[in-house]
Every structure is written in C-alpha cells, then in structure tokens.
Amino acid sequence: MSGFLRLVRRDLRLALRQGGDAAMVLAFFLLTVALFPFGVGPEPEVLRRIAAGTVWVTALLAALLSLERLFLADYEDGSLEALVLMPLPLEIQVLAKALAHWLTTGLPLTVVAPLLALLLHLDRSGYGALVIGMALGTPTLSLIGAVGAALTLGARRGGVLLSLLVLPLYIPVLIFGVGAVEAQIIGVSARPHLLLLVALLLAAIPLAPVAAAAALRQAVE
Amino acid sequence: MMVAIEHYLAMGGYAVFVWPAFAVAVLIMAALAIDSVAGYRRRLRELALLEGDLP
Amino acid sequence: MFRFANPARFMRFSAAILPWCAGATALLLAAGLVLALFVSPPDYQQGEAVRIMYVHVPAAYLASLAYAVVAVASAVSLIWRHPLADIAAQEAAPLGAGFTLICLISGSLWGEPMWGTWWVWDARLTSVLVLFFLYLGYIALVHAFDDPTRGARAGAILALVGVVNLPIIKFSVDWWSTLHQPESIFRLGGPTIAAAMLWPLAVMALGFTLFFVTLLLVRMRSRLLAAKIRALRLVG
Fold it and tell me: What's the whole-model pTM score?
C-alpha cells in the first residue's frame, strides 16, 4: 500500500510541478463551456435545456487533454522500464497513476461543475445528480483513458489516435451521467443512472489496469 | 408487362428506401471484394516476377 | 494444436478450399437476392419495405461475427504469439467495418419509413455505431507504429477491450425499451418470423458469411505473399 501511495504522491508532485495540469484543464473546461452561449444564443431556456449535456461533454474533452502525458514522460526518459521491473505489480501502478490523473482532472472538474451549471442556468433540482454523477463517472474516464494512453505510447499522431480510441468508450458514462441529471429534473429518481455509473466504475477498476498494464509491457519490450 | 415491372420497381411506395439499401450493400461488398482480390493479384504478379529473376 | 496454423500448410489448405468458397458464395448470394427481391412475400405491416431486412440483418450479424473473429484471433496472438492469428485479426477488421457500415446505412433507410426517423440515439443503434468506431480505432492503431509487431500487439489488446461492446449490442434491445424491434430469429422457443421470410434470410446470411470467409482467406493469403516477397527482396 505504501508503494501505491508513494507512486500517487510522485505523480501528483510531477503534475503540480509541470505548471499546474489541473489549472490548465479547468481553464479549458471554463472556456469551452463559455463558448456555448455564443454558439446557441444566450436565451436561458435554450441553455437550461443543454446545460447538463454541455457540462458533461466538455468534462469528457477536458479529461482527455492531459491523458496523453499519463505515461509519456516515463516512456521517453526510460523510467517505464524500471517501473515494469518493480516488485509492485504493474496493474497497481496503473491504478495509482489513474488515481493521480483523477485527482488532478476529474476531481477539480467535479468541484467547478456546479459553477458552470449555474452559468448555463441548469434547473436547480439537477445540481445534486450532476455533482454525484461526475464524482462517480470521472474516475471511470481516467481508468479507460489510462488504457488508451498506454496503447498509443510511441504511436504516430498519438494524441488524435488517443481520442479516436477513448471517446467511443466514454459514451456509456456520458449517457448515464446526463441521464441522472435529466431524471432528477423531471422528478424521477436519479438512482438507477447513478447505480449504473457505479457499476461501470466497479467494472473499470479491475479491468482497465489489466489492459493498460498489458499495453505498457508490450510498449517497453 | 411494362406496368407489372413498374409496379414491381415502385416497391409499394418504398422504392426510395429499398433500392438504395440494396445498392449500398452491393457497392460496399463489391468494394471489399475488389480491394481484396486486386491486392492479391498484384502480389501474385510481383512474386512471379521475383521468382522469375532467380537463377 | 493448430492444424492449419503453419503458414505453408495454411497456403495449401486455403488454396484447396478457396474456389469452393468463392463458388458457394456466388451461388448463395445470387439465390438470396432472387429470394429476397422476388420470392419472399411483402410483410402485412411493413409492406415491401421489409425487404431491407434481407441485407440489414445479415450485415448486422456479420458485423458482430467479424468482431468476434478479430477478438479471438487477437487473444490467440497475445497468448501463443502466432503470426497467422495477427494476420487473421488485421484482415478481418476492414471486412467487419464494411459490414457495420452496410448495417448502419440500411438500418437508417429502414428506420425512416417505419419509425419516421433516419436515426434514434437508442442503445442498439449507439452500440453498433461504437462498434464501427472500434473497428476504425483498431485499424488506425495497428498502422500507427513504425514497428509492425507493436501495432499488432496494441491492436490485439484494444480488440479484447472492445469485446465488452458485443454483449451490449446483443442484449440492448432486451435491456432498454426502444424503437428497434427485439430479436426475432435467435431466441428461445424458436423464431417468431414467418417461414416464407426466414428461408430467404437464412440463405442471405449464409451467403454473407461465406463472402466474409472467402475474402478473409484471400486477404490472409495476400499478406503471406507480401511477407514472402519481402523475404525474397532481402535475399536478392
């Protein structure tokens, strides 16, 4: 466990030293959401209708931003080969890296999501489902993203390829995340949607590290 | 006779949906077949040339 | 263990069955078209539009089958490191993508007259669209590396990750209420569609399957020839 925590702390320190990954992701999130009122017009009724979807889609894209660098630095300076040989299983290390990624992207996104929802006039009853949904859904995004990042290490046009691989797999999270908010707004329980988000997360926690670790092993072979 | 053919081609009013569906299937499958066979033929020719060069 | 897994043996075996496969494909597809367009009756609800089913359903079935072939071959390649398995997976993928595209377009052309819309964002249609993107991602990933073995490995892992989508496609019509009609052929208690439609459909589905097998054999042979050409160039 201590090895796990040490890895998380190392990745967090790296992310913070590189000039605030989290700040960049948040800035992107804010800016992109702010584009929508210009794109569809400032009428509150229109914005209210698209608020949940806009916040979720933008969060998806923001989470994608910092994914490419998840393993890239370790891959380029050769420390990935050392990580593969460490006594701590590579799967657990992937989990640690995904956790660090979530702490610097998913968590801040979840925290500012209500603020953006406010700017888009989201119906007041939808806030709870939005925040809980994002708290449950964004870790899954980091985990699925870790698989994509590991697969595209050293690939040509890795960044574009990464989005092509990862975005289709993000669709279920998006569907149930937005579904939870919509359900709450029309007055039915958001519970089934949130439980499905939990199910996705529980499936991703064991499966994604296994796939990502396999991809990392073949990358350094 | 002509009336019968015209009646058939109209597909009970669904002609604009039925015929394109079949056309798309035929086009895509033909493209796959042509791509596969052309690549195969090209390599057969290339191989024949190479093996002909050998003593 | 793999009787035909040796490349030389595969070339001999495939050369022997290829003409039969090609002939049977041509016969079945021709018969299937005649049955679908002339012999089968119009539906009492859908009228002549039901004929779209004879391309839509076989294409949908092949889209999933081809993905299963990609996934199984990928697993074999990752576990036993067999070069033929890599080739099978990589050559099945473009064929599968083609069938998925036929399925999506013909489904759209069927949806407009029957449901009044070209597209709905329900679970079945969305999961098939995801399947299409998985094929594209797989093909792009395989070709994204300078070292072809790395591309093959990365692609194989992606193909296995994407397997989660197959049960979603299969059961989406049962789990979510949707416009898409539920399974009417492969179900417990036997098919619910009339025999006059089931026969043409079966012939078409078999024709599509053999078409896939034939082209897969041709493409795999082509890849092995390319390897031989490369080897000869290195020597010469």
Answer: 0.87
